[in-house]
Amino acid sequence: MKNITNLLATAVLLIAAPILAQEAKVSANLARTPPMGWNSWNQFGCNVDEQMLRGIAKAMVDSGMKDVGYQYVVIDDCWQVRRDQNGNIVADPERFPSGIKSLADYVHALGLKFGIYSDAGSLTCKERPGSLGHEYLDARQYAAWGVDYLKYDWCHTTTQDAKAAYALIRRALDATGRPIVLSMSEWGDPRPWDWGKEVGSQLWRTTDDIVDRWQAQIKWPNGNCCAYGVVDILDQQVGLESFAEPGHWNDPDMLEVGNGGMTTTEYRAHFSLWAVLAAPLIAGNDLRSMRSEDREILTNPEVIAVNQDAAGKQGSRVVKNGDSEVWVKEQKDGSRAVVLFNRSAASQEISVRWNDLGYPTHLRAEIRDLWQHKDLGTFEKGFSARVESHGVAMITVKIL
Ligand code: GLA
User: Is the pTM above the cut of 0.85?
Assistant: First the structure.
């Protein structure tokens, strides 16, 4: 009897091991650098349709964004209206008359990747059908459509356990055999940085929603706190840097660059800081009608290179003197990307000393300005710049 049991156990292992190994492989190497792309929510909310999305995908190519690394075109909430009699999720037939597959095909034909949105609960945040109880069915549907990225939200989840819910959708996605990035949108409440990697997600939200403001805390209609401005979100990232690594990223929410609620200086700061945070760079503006200033921000190849550096280290705040801050990101070649950040209402001189970066003071270093695209020469001990209000100077420091 014991022998038969052992034999059975071995047989089960022999069958299961390759399946498990294959599942593990499917999503194992995704997002080795922070994902870059575009998402409909920040600019369009529920006003999504296939024509707009095709236009955005085309603009991602024509604007040069694809060339500098943006690849995912993600539809957020409100594309779905109901389930059919077999439980399959149904896209809004008026807004997506050609169907999701044809939209995904269009995006793929441009050399881009396609993403979609659902929710771990019974309903999405905008009360469309969520995936609860339909995880495997939905995952199969997404794979059949050609989905490459799933943003999975956390509304209407009542007593669900976040870790278990995200692990379940990860398994369902992997079981399709298609590599699909999992973006967890649980707003940081259940400390996703502690377990996001273990459940195999590529990114997890560390905050509630961003709003297109420099500084704001806006209560939700139900009285809960809050959607936040850029600096409020920035402060919430302090201390999370050790949890990011290639394949697994803290997500301080998507970019607002170009959405009109901040100045160009503020958008440049927002983008620079998200770059140093190794944050996913998910644009959220209307790419079809972008101002050239916003395009220049979103496509600055030197700032993007800092974000996409292969070491995958998230930067941290090493100096805070009231309204002046220094943020530093260690790069693979040993250099440091540095953001001198002025939060105050007036311009001010901000300095970084080599020992703030962990370097001995006497060394000489080469400085390059990543917004002026200019080598500034070699400096000893440290470097200072005059930084405008709500602005940044962003440099790389390379020891000679
Ligand atoms: C939540 C998410 C947002 C967006 C909306 C959609 O608020 O945090 O990013 O996806 O839902 O309803």
Answer: yes
